[in-house]
Write a structure and sequence with these properties.
The complex is a heterodimer.
Chain A (H helix, E strand, L loop, with lengths): L3 E2 L10 H7 L15 H21 L6 E4 L2 H14 L8 E5 L4 H12 L3 E5 L9 H7 L4 E5 L13 H11 L2 E5 L11 H4 L3 E5 L10 E5 L14 H4 L7 H19 L2 H16 L5 E3 L10 E6 L4 H10 L2 E2 L4 E2 L5 E2 L2 H5 L4 H5 L1 E5 L6 H20 L7 H8 L2
Parallel strand pairs in A: 1-11, 3-4, 3-5, 5-6, 6-7
Antiparallel strand pairs in A: 2-8, 7-8, 9-10, 10-14, 12-13
Chain B lengths: L5 E5 L4 H12 L3 E8 L23 H14 L3 E5 L1 H17 L6 H20 L4 E3 L5 E5 L4 E5 L17 H5 L1 E2 L7 H10 L21 H11 L9 E5 L4 E5 L22 E6 L4 E5 L5 E12 L9 E6 L7 E7 L5 E10 L6 E6 L2 E8 L3
Parallel strand pairs in B: 1-2, 1-4, 2-3, 4-7, 8-11
Antiparallel strand pairs in B: 5-6, 8-9, 10-11, 12-15, 12-17, 13-14, 13-16, 14-15, 16-17
Helix pairs in contact in B: 1-2, 1-6, 3-4
The chains are: A alpha/beta, B alpha/beta.
Chain lengths: 397, 372
Amino acid sequence: MRWVYLDNNATTPVLPEVLEAMRPYFGEHFGNASSIHHHGQETRAAVERARESVAALLGCRASEVVFTSGGTEADNLAIFGLTSGGLVRPGDHIVTSTIEHHAVLNACKHLAAQGCEVTYIPVDGRGLVDLADVKRAIRPNTKLITIMFANNETGVVEPVAEIGKIAAEADIYFHTDAVQAAGKIAIDVKQIGCDLLTISGHKLHGPQGAGALYVRKGTPLEPMLYGGSHERSRRAGTENVPGIVGLGKAAELARAGLERGEDLKMAASRDHLERELLGIEATGLNGEGAPRVPNTTNIYFDGIEGEALVIALDLKGLAVSTGAACSSGAIEPSHVLTAMGLLPDRAKASIRFSLGKQNVAEDVDFALGLIPETVGRLRELSPVWAGAGVVSRKFAR
Amino acid sequence: MLHSETIAVAMSGGVDSSAVAAMLRAEGHNVIGLTMQLWNQRRLAGREGMPESVQGRCCSIDDVYDARRVAETLGIPYYVVNHEERFERDVVRPFVEEYLAGRTPIPCSLCNNHLKFDQLLIVARQVGADKIATGHYAQVVFDEPRARWLLKRPADKSKDQTYFLFGLTQEQLSRTLFPLGGMTKPEVRDLARRHNLVIAEKPDSQEICFVPGGDYKRFLEAYLEEQENGPTEIAGEMVTSDGKVIGEHSGVHNFTVGQRKGLGVATGAPLYVIQIKNETRQVVVGKDEELYSRTLCARRVSLISTTELREPMRVAVKIRHKHQPAPAMIESAGPDEIRVTFDDPQRAITPGQAAVFYDGDTVVGGGWIENS
C-alpha cells in the first residue's frame, strides 16, 4: 500500500542528513556536555555548533538560544519565565490572540487563574489579528504580548513585525510562537523586534523532543526547572545532545533551503493542490486573502464531516488532518476556525493539508486522485448534503 | 469463509466488541475499529453529588485506551469519532425530559437507534465499510419467504439484548452483523483470551454509560443545574389511588412505577408507586395489587418481522429488559400504535419503557409504553 503524508504541520519526517548527523551522538559520542573530560568536550562542541546553526536561522546570537524539550516547553518558559522573573505578576495584563496554540492559550489561562488579566485579540475572517485591536488592548499594566507567527491550522502569517513595533513603543515584552514559521519562511528576530521566539525541531524535519527559545539579551527570564546551571541557568537538565544536534542540522538545512528558494517551489506545489481542490463544488479556502506559509492549505468541503474524510483518506493511504485531537483521539471543532467566524458545521467540514520537504509532485497527484471521489462518496451518504445549493444555507456564515 | 468484506466494528473497549473484532479479523475480513466519543465524563464532574473523576466508564480515556490496545493487538486500523452533540440531542436530553415527564426512559435503545445504527453506520459506509458489527447478543437473519431481515434472540438467552434493538429498520438490519449471537459469554471470554486481548478479564458494564455510579437522580440534578434549569417546578403531591393527599415529593423524576423505597411516607402496609401523573405532577401510591394491569398501549411502534399488523396476533411481550416475556395478544390501535392485552395481569407496566413483541425467538417489533 502506498502511504502519502500531507500532515507536516503535525510533525515532519527527520531528513536523512539530520539522522546521519545525530547518529554518532547515540553511540561513540555519548559524553555529558557538562563533563570536563574529552567525552564531554566532544558533545559540548556539538551542542554549541547546533546553537550557532539555530542562531543563524533566527538572526540572533548563539548566546540568545536556549534549548528546550520542544515548542510547548519553550512557550511555557517564555511566559512563566517572565512570571517567575517577577516581570509578570498577579494584577498584570497579558495580550494574546484567540488562535494561539494550546501551549500558549493554556499557559495564559493558568496565569489568569493566578490573578493576571488576559486579553484575547480576535481575528478577522482571513485569520489575521487587527493591529488596531492590539494597540487598543494595551493598558498601563500590560507586561507581555504573545501572538503567534504562523498559525498551525491555516498557515496564516500574523503581522508580527508590526506587533513588535507596537510592543517596543509601549515598552512591553513580546513573545511569538514561530513553531509553524521556522524553516518555512525567513525569520529575523531583529526585524520582528521580539524578545522571545519559540521554535520546535520536529516541525522542520528535525527530531521530536528538541526545541529552542530565543531570549533577547537582557530579558529577565527565570528558569522553570531547577537543577544544574545548564543553558546559562535558564533551563536545567542534561542536554538532549542527539536531539539538539538534529535540531541544529535541521536549522542549517532549512536556512540553506530558504536561500535556494525552496519555499517558492513548495508554494507552487501547494497552490496546485489548492487550486484543484477548490474546483470541487461547495468548497472554499480558510485564510483566503491572508499571507500564508508556503506549505499549508486549509479547505472546507461543505456537507461532510472532516473527521470521516480524514478516516476515509487514511484508509486509502493519505494522511491529512482536521482540527485538534482531544485526549481520546476524537476531533473537536477547531478553535482557530471558529475564531475566524466559521459556523461549527463548516469548521468541522474543514481539512488541513500541509506539505513537507519529502513530498514530491506524485504525492500531490495521489491526493488529487483520491479526494474528489472520496468527498463525493461522503456527500452521497451524508444526511445533511442535498447538493451545493441546498446545503449552503446551513454552512454559510 | 465465502468472501472478504470491509466491516466496521463498534468497539467500546469491552470484551464483547473486542471479541467481535478478533473473530471477524480471524475470518479474513477487512476490519476497521471505530469508537464513538459520546459524552465528556468530566463535564459534570465536581458538581453536587457527582464524582470528581470518572474511571473506567464508557467514553472514558481508559476505555478508548483499551479499545486502541485491542486494535493494535489485532493489527486493524482504529479511529475515535466524536458524536457528543448528536448523543446529547438524541439520547441525553430525551432521557432527562422523560424523567421530568414522569416516565422511566431507556437511553440504550435511543443510542442504538440514533447513534450506533444510524450515525455510526453512516460513518462506517462513508469510510468504505459495507457493514457494521457490534458486540450485542442478538441474531440477524434474512427470511427468504417474507423477504425481510429478522431480529432474533441469541443462543445465550441470559445475555439477550434484543429488547434494546427493536427500533432497527430493515435497511439498518441488512447492514448489521451480530457475530456473538450464537455464543455464550464464557465462550466469548475464551475467544478473547485465545487472541491475547488485554481486556479478556475486564468486568461487564451494567450501568447507563453516561451516568457515573448508576445514580441517575444525581445525574439529572447536575445536568439541570448545568443547563440552569432547576428541578423545582417538578415537585408535587403524593396521593393514594382514591385521591387522598398523603404528602409531598420533590420531583416526579425521583420515582418510577413499582418503586417502594424512598417514598418519604410511612404507613402500615407497604406502599408502591403505581402511577405518575405528569399533568398534575402527582405521584400515586398504593398497594402491591394495584400495580397489576392486563393492558398497555405502545406508541411509535417499529415492526420488524412484518410490515403491518392486519389482524390480532398472539405473541409474548417483554415490558422491561429483565422481564420474562408474557403471553399476550397484540392488535393495531391506530397508526404506529398497538394495544397489548396480556393473558395474565402484569406487574408495574412502566411508561417510558419499551414493550417488545416476540414470536418464539423472533422479534415481531416493539413500541414505547404510554401513560395509561
